[in-house]
Write a structure and sequence with these properties.
241 residues; alpha/beta; Rossmann fold; Arc Repressor Mutant, subunit A; 11 helices
Length: 241
């Protein structure tokens, strides 16, 4: 099921809905991981799908089906416009630009906006991914993930990853951290001065978290049981603002 509150995307959906009864070809373009496949599955649930990167399978599908959805469509491929005539073909491409040749093949070209252009959908997906993460990690009491500064560079992929990491960090135990560090050091150790190289892995988050929590170097130095000047020196060495 595809859900959206985006006005920009609603225009794309209306156009695709109107084309359901027409035997015309449409091209749907946009960045990866923005829901193009999910959208088309919800509008055309019974249409045959074919991988556009498989040339043999694609040619066979065009010959044997009047209605197909082509994913991994290469807009720079050598296509004959006559092969698309009289058929309902919807092609999906991760590109954000089209060639003049595509205008002769497709009656309609739709651009699906990225998540950064659809803040309403980010909120919905945050709720959806958070519920899934809560179920996986059995953490009903963890504060909701706030996506204000999340990484949307890979759209749903990076958003889902950020939310999963939020719940992983909220559920992690000391034993878990020991196992993570054990595997990490087992992979990374091998230099000539590794003790000094890896010590900031422990010190930096300890000091940064303490400063955020207590808001005072004097208070934190007391909590850590170290001299305030020693703490200030460490802060400078680690480049902590």
């Amino acid at each position: 099921m595809f859900c959206t509150s985006s006005q920009k995307l609603s225009y794309v959906i209306k156009g695709l809905e109107l084309s359901k009864s027409l035997f015309v070809s449409s091209l749907v373009i946009g960045e990866p991981n923005i829901g193009k496949k999910t959208l088309l599955k919800s509008i055309f649930p019974n249409t045959h799908w074919v991988d556009g990167s498989d040339t043999k399978a694609l040619k066979n599908a065009i010959m044997t089906h009047n209605e197909i959805i082509i994913y991994n469509f290469n807009i720079y491929g050598d296509y004959d416009a006559s092969d698309f005539n009289g058929k309902k073909i919807i092609a999906i491409s991760d590109t954000t630009n089209t060639t003049a040749h595509m205008d002769s093949i497709f009656s309609f070209i739709y651009t699906v906006p990225s998540l950064i252009e659809r803040p309403e959908d980010v909120e919905y997906l945050n709720e959806k991914f958070s519920k899934k993460a809560q179920s996986i990690f059995e953490l009903d009491d963890v504060p909701k993930y706030i996506p204000n500064a999340t990484d949307l560079s890979s759209n749903t992929k990076s958003l889902n990853k950020a939310i999963l990491l939020h719940y992983i960090y909220s559920s992690i135990t000391i034993d878990d951290m020991k196992k993570i560090l054990y595997k990490y050091f087992g992979h990374e150790l091998g230099g000539n001065n590794d003790y000094s190289k890896f010590l900031p892995i422990f010190e930096r988050p300890l000091i940064e978290s303490g400063l955020d929590k207590f808001g005072s170097q004097l208070k934190l130095s007391s909590i850590l049981g170290i001299n305030r000047n020693t703490l200030r020196k460490k802060i400078n060495e680690l480049g902590i603002n």
